[in-house]
Amino acid sequence: xxxxxxxxxxxxxxxxxxxxxxxxxxxxxxxxxxxxxxxxxxxxxxxxxxxxxxxxxxxxxxxxxxxxxxxxxxxxxxxxxxxxxxxxxxxxxxxxxxxxxxxxxxxxxxxxxxxxxxxxxxxxxxxxxxxxxxxxxxxxxxx
Length: 143
Ligand code: DQA
Hints:
- It contains five helices and five strands.
- It has helices spanning 19-22, 27-41, 53-62, 82-91, 129-142; strands spanning 2-7, 44-49, 69-73, 95-99, 121-124.
- The longest helix has 15 residues, at 27-41.
- The chain is globular and about 35 Å long.
């Protein structure tokens, strides 16, 4: 089983970016933690981060036939991107929406997710552990 971990805009700045919301772990730290966790679960993980919406759409399209599912932290595009939503709906790869912070306890514009309805589930508010919990949920779901 292969899982794509896809991260959107500004998540390349994790570690330095608003640590009160996003913690002190870098994206490299999170990717290392997920690689270790994937080894324990006996699955493979691949990683991609982009600040560019179209590159994330391309990554979702290219995942077909290569990956069995996606962990997606679309970051700010969660709240704005019809293109990402449509890409997920088109490829039909089981996807878990991930957020480090609890988006529902933050500004109102973060309460709307355009991608949630085309995901199998959502994990929000557990910091870097959100990714680990999402990986477990997706692997269990995929069986
Ligand atoms: C985020 C939450 C989004 O609202 C925000 O734009 C991000 C990160 C999170 O992981 O908590 O960039 O997706």
